[in-house]
Amino acid sequence: MGATAAVVVAALVQGAGNDPVVGAALSLSVPAEYRALIEEAGNTCPQVSPNLLAALLTQESGFNPKARSPVGAQGIAQFMPSTWESHGIDGNGDGKRDVWDPEDAIPSSAKYLCTIADDVKDVPGNKQNNMLAAYNAGSGAVRQYGGVPPYKETQNYVRAISALADQPSGGGTTATTTQAATAINAAKAMIGKPYSWGGGNASGPSTGICCSPNGSSGASIEGFDCSGLTLYAYAKAGISLPRTAEQQYAASEPVKPGQQRPGDLVFYGTSAESIHHVGIYVGNGWILDAPRPGTQVRYSPMDTMRDLYGVARPKPSNSKEI
Questions:
Q1: Would you call 60 a catalytic residue per the annotation?
Q2: Which of 96, 142, 205, 260 could cysteine-pair with 311, CB 3.0–4.6 Å?
Q3: Architecture of domain 3-165
């Protein structure tokens, strides 16, 4: 069935109980090359909609088909190898099941959502929340706890995807999911670049200045400091950020706890006036950042510092079109 026909048919389908009505259109901003895939795969079963699938892919990888999490999840839908082995499908009919190919991974993600929705259909509570929780933590955990399990990561995951799926994006006052994905990919390409105090600009790594609070100089090191990395990443997405972490927080829109999505900026400090570090959220409690002198651009846990202040989404105002 073609994508257009599938959307029209799905619009007439309503799930039982707390199952959502399948949306008639994809309103979230996604990369153009994945729209048709998401629109068709997002109507695999009544429990899945194109917007929900797009929101899940945003949370999982920021639409990066080569994403690899620190715990081993792979591809645009972040399948663990064992899960892919049992649930991956040959979506494009080329005779291979390739977790790195969005034409296989996106339909596989939708089909897996449908499978686990059936697995937990008799569990009390919101059916969509239970399905998303099962995607993150496993159907067994949802059945064991009679709903979304009491895991902070899973609860935040469910809230973030639901909030994104329930509201259109694109053309709004904050960065779109496409811009966020571009920023993540730009930062990821800089992994391994050395930390340089004052280093980094919209064009890429640069030599820094002297001196950091502990006396470290970036004057002879070509690389990034924390805000230089985020400035560069969002410049690649067409959004101009100020130079310092404190200024970047002021230029962004705060995100409520549990509603962060890949591409959001994570800030550290004891107040808005004392913010001293920033990283780019990539999902599942991890950020990309340039931590401190003597290190390199890398993945770090979101709780890498004890003074996590908040999460905020860059505003594209006064930014160039991409």
A1: yes
A2: 260
A3: Orthogonal Bundle (1.10)
User: Above 60 in pLDDT, residue 14?
Assistant: no
Cα dihedral value 149, 151, 152, 154, nearest 10: -60
Which fold would CATH assign to domain 177-192+225-314? endopeptidase fold (from Nostoc punctiforme) (3.90.1720)
CA distance 132 to 248: 32
Length of the chain in terms of residues written? 322
Query: Helices 152-165 and 127-137 meet at what angle, rounded to 10?
Result: 130
Return d(Cα 277, Cα 51) in angstroms, integer.
Answer: 33
Element of type H or E holding 207: strand 206-207
Given the structure tokens 């130079």, which residue do they identify? Answer: 243
Report how far residue 230's alpha carbon sits from residue 244's, in angstroms, rounded to the nearest whole number: 10
Mean pLDDT rounded to a whole number for the chain: 86
Whole-angstrom CA distances from 12 to 15, 22, 83, 163 are 10, 8, 31, 23
Q: Which residue in 33, 60, 85, 253 is the catalytic one?
A: 60
Q: What is the dihedral of CA 32, 174, 65, 204, to 10 degrees?
A: 110
pTM over 0.85: no
